[in-house]
Hints:
The structure is a homodimer of 306-residue chains. The first copy, chain A, has 306 residues and is an alpha/beta fold. Chain A contains twelve helices and ten strands.
Amino acid sequence: LKVGVIGSGALGLYYGAMLQRGGADVHYLLRRDYVALSSTGLKVFSVNGNFHLEQVKGYRDPTKIGQVDLVLVGLKTFANHSLVELVRPLVGPETLILTLQNGLGNEELLAAAFRPQQLLGGVAFLCSNRGEPGEVHHLGEGRIRLGNYASADLARCQNLADAFSRAGVPCEASDDLIRIRWEKLAWNIPFNGLCALTGKDVTELLEHAPTRELVADMMAEVVRAANRQSLKSPIDAANFIEHMLSVSDAMDHYKPSMMIDRLEGRRLELEAIYAIPLQRAREVGASMAQVDMLHRCLSVGETDPR
Amino acid sequence: LKVGVIGSGALGLYYGAMLQRGGADVHYLLRRDYVALSSTGLKVFSVNGNFHLEQVKGYRDPTKIGQVDLVLVGLKTFANHSLVELVRPLVGPETLILTLQNGLGNEELLAAAFRPQQLLGGVAFLCSNRGEPGEVHHLGEGRIRLGNYASADLARCQNLADAFSRAGVPCEASDDLIRIRWEKLAWNIPFNGLCALTGKDVTELLEHAPTRELVADMMAEVVRAANRQSLKSPIDAANFIEHMLSVSDAMDHYKPSMMIDRLEGRRLELEAIYAIPLQRAREVGASMAQVDMLHRCLSVGETDPR
């Protein structure tokens, strides 16, 4: 399996490393980590055991990678204006493109440039961050849920999920990409934004009753909007939210990616996690008032997308 | 006129200095600035012209001040657990107590300890901050609106307003303290909290359309709640909000007190500016959903009152 990783942040490096360790031929498009990875390889510090890939195929230019069997997209969505041009050199007629990016709008962007049947989307439940160049830290979880964007070929989807699972990344194939995207949003929308805005981590928000209630209320807003999308079966709000909260209670002072982005002065993924979901909700008459207010508060001082 | 200033932050120092320069016998209860004021006096850096009071009567102990004609209260409301004990030594049968503190609940606290007829409340439109010890910076505005808490003696209220005005502090006597408190809240609630939470100043919030709309929406929530309190005449929401926004547009990157409190690591005045107004709104069936969400976001990580 020849894999090209576009967007080699913590997520891209971690999943790329797992697939490579599992035997895949992995090619990484790199910026910050190019020199370090090319000289000393990639060190993975993982809760499941550290490992070191001494040989890593890194590139600055995607045309040097050539066509691959699987493009794994981990690009930050605020860089999506470059997404298609970065992916294009890797795509042949049989190539699968799997985007594990946050939020909504990523598949649509790719579907406008490539054959929609080649596209898959997925959501990653991964606690990870980058360390020094040449390192990635895996702090917890790691499983993936993925689904076809336009194809009805569930077997293909299951094969890809199996490939991840064999490489040590628990992976589930879903027949409803829209649902798994919205279920992930129900976590990302409250926690990413509230943590970024308040500077408090997941545990701090949950241990303070007024923000715990706010998180639950925002999850309910997202689930209501999700259930007006064309899901194959509706999300059971009460059970789902209780489950999300208990999963989150088990996280030990986790800092979501948007909180880290803000702390480190990077742009925020507001378009994919807030603006597009708010638009999709409005289109079906499901207002998300608290999500909207959070988005407004996060957006001040951010440069416009592109 | 013997005046005692309780709570000598930027507001207490500025108004105390103006009254003293106008001829009043002003006594300041001090903590941080005690040494500086006692040795080198008080320097006022004002948009209306700087001045220096070389002799300043500063105290660490309110019992040393003795009874006064007017107690001017500028204490931060998060220190209200000490309010009554600090004020008590200054109060005789004829003493007037004027609280210029932020938000709601201050008059009620004083009314439980002193004769309600001796109480006045006021709101200050003052852009000021403290500089080095012994200094205060007056950046703009400065006018006061005040009203009786329980007394019907409007002439007394007007006399006090005239005393401020003669000392160079434009001051208006109102016959509706509840209304002037809520009108001030309609500014304080959106701007203090949003600036503290986002780290952006008044100008930055107003120049970004999504937060400008949010500010206006929150003002509308506050006005709706205000108009269900027992006001003598209702606030005309549209005109009032347009006026508030245009006044705020004229402020040049002003940082509200709560933003400065947060930047400097002090506690926030959440009880007076958010919790009590939210309670008063709930009591009359006027929910303030956006105000409530802002309060929740501000409260995480704050210690509880008292």
